[in-house]
Amino acid sequence: xxxxxxTIYHMNDLHSHFTYWPQIxxxxxxxxxxxxxxxxxxxxDHADRSHVITExxxxxxxxALLNELxxxxxxxxxxxGITFSKEALNELYAHASFPVVVANLFDxxxxxxxxxxxxxxxxxSEQLTIGMIGVTAPFTPFYRELGWDVRRHEEVLPQLxxxxxxxxDVVVLLSHLGLFRDEEIxxxxxxxxxxxxxxxxHVLPEGKRxxxxxxxxxxxxxxxxxxxxxxxxTEARCIAESNAQLIDMEKEAPDxxxxxxxxxxxxxxxxxxxxxxxxxxxxxxxxxxIPTEGAQLLCDGxxxxxxxxIGMMNAGVLLExxxxxxxxxxxxxxxxxxxxxxxxxxxxxxxxxxxxxRAHTREIIELELKGFGFRGKVLGTMLFTGIDxxxxxxxxxxxxVTEVKIAGEPVxxxxxxxxxxxxxxxxxxxxxxxxxxQEKRYFMPEMLRDVLAWQLKKIEHR
Length: 462
Hints:
Number of strands: 25
Largest sheet: 6 strands, mixed
Structural class: alpha/beta
Shape: globular
Distance between the termini: 80 Å
């Protein structure tokens, strides 16, 4: 039996968490010396604007690091796709030394962006060609607000899969759709040998096999680097053997040159973000569990930004108090690092009342949220603009909402209200009634910190 070995290394959802990046560089240097044929893939969400390096360079430092690592192919995640403006994303990969593979993102005119290709054919030898298709999570309303047309994988994958299968011996899907979608794809489509996955941050130590497809995913933050070893049988023209594993980067010695490079990038980024935004003669306090002036300022700003009369926001989106003295771009980024956008939601008074009651539960106030763009510690108390709430404390310490008024009048259950709030509340279990709303408008590309800077400039006094 004549065989060809191939090793595929993969990483996903680094989220600009560079703690293990020197270890990844060190590990790959050693692997290259002993691995005959290999590919190195990034599955998206490498860049996260909650990190100063990414914020200061609009992700270009992330691309430079991927270049230096020697990445072969990458796809994009939602952090690349919807936390950068369209202009910034179009410039992000200008100096990339690797193809960006994403099949389901288009301009509004139906053309794919110049920096993206739907698939690539990688020649390992005359007898082995690897076909790779890239797909990213279709956050449709967000992409639409930014001027993109993102499509569901079902709209592009069937045709591309047939096209690629006709030219490739092994088919790999670079997926930033999440494990559950990857499992559906493995069931629905024949001919995909390997799905290198991302988005849901699953840790799959040996991968997962479904319907003849091997699915992999390597957690979050670079702690794990995925490794898939394939053996291709050139006579039978199929994969004879495959196995997946995750390499723990905590056990690797860091590359010192890379470590020093990251320290340098950090210093440069902080210098870049040192521009003055406002001067405050007094501190604006922030407390996650009681209403404060600093957090209320942002809640009021979101409401005005969205052109609404009422708004709500958890205090935990501000990580510390603001000022006094000079407040810089870097200060605002540190205090409000989340890639979260203002959002306007239309909902009935009945749904609004249910949402307000849920906001006052311990489950929400004390929730140590992970994901949805939130980069803080705990959600904290809910703040309101234009909404007056009467509460009573029960014997067990829980808060009971006894009355809610808007503009001095009780909420009318059948009436429609426009609520200014945070986009992360529209994603699911946090506030189901907000998520169920059929009318949502996202304000992009501005993030909460842009609104905060806008508010601080308005109240500045020397």
